[in-house]
Amino acid sequence: MTQTPAFDKPKVELHVHLDGAIKPETILYFSRKRGIALPAETVEELQDIICMDKPLSLSSFLAKFNYYMPAIAGSREAIKRIAYEFVETKAKEGVVYVEVRYSPHLLANCKVEPIPWNQPEGDLTPDEVVALVSQSLQEGERDFKVKVRSILCCLRHQPNWSLEVVELCQKYQQTVVAIDLAGDETIKGSSLFPGHVKAYEEAVRRGIHRTVHAGEVGSAEVVKEAVDTLKTERLGHGYHTLEDEALYARLRQENMHFEICPWSSYLTGAWKSDTEHAVVRLKNDQANYSLNTDDPLIFKSTLETDYQMTKQGMDFTEEEFKRLNINAAKSSFLPEDEKKQLLDLLYKAYGMPSLDAAGQHP
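Above: the chain's sequence. Below: its structure in token form.
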């Protein structure tokens, strides 16, 4: 019997990783084509290794990428295909606008420790990766009628790449809307590494939008660093903000947007299931947040997974789903005219009056 969708109206997704949203069939195809051995030969075997079905640690989750990324990174054909297939997948999930993020350097196979799977550097550059992804996302947008923009990730353990990420954001500003800081939050003080700070200062100077993974497993102090030093406009996850009531109250007053990933937070151990999830507090306080998949390949999920989780286990209603998607659209990094078009689309689909010229409901 087919499960009734938790929310069958158009949706907006702001936090999903391209390299965590690849079809298992595509990984196997390129491992064979490129002659790169994987510890699996079928979709089922691959999923048994890389997918999670019970809570682990964030570091255990991050280690999953080591199994399958050798088949994708450094290949122009693979990078184009995963970007195009990503848009197709989001269309099937009822997403009308999505911001997908990735590290150009990792997809280019740039040398980095401690990730062991990187092969010797080839001729594929981070610049070309962004060009390839942008082209395929635009082709997917055309074919599947989903509006797509991308976010480029700086990595906590690789601050010397961050300024180049800012340059790429500016060069490809027609399709790239922001920078992000991702990676292991347990690297103490990594938000404050000079390379990251300089990159975010440069992003502010150039008018490039900013989001940061903070408060997923890290403390409220990491969130403070993201807000006060990196001047982030959104928070990736941000659950542990609630440990500091004064900080939470301040961010609510400033209308900070929280990119919430419920199913992800359960499987990575960012949320302990015997406690109330941070998203329940955000819902009750009518705060600004969205629901997102994060890494659906590894979590063996779709956006429906996160909507069902909040509907069945946290009493989310259709009206709350409408509200959070409107907030996601308002907090997107689209230019204002495109943002208004997106909001008008949602208001029409939700049976709500559109905004007037002053941005108010009639």
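The radius of gyration is 19 Å.
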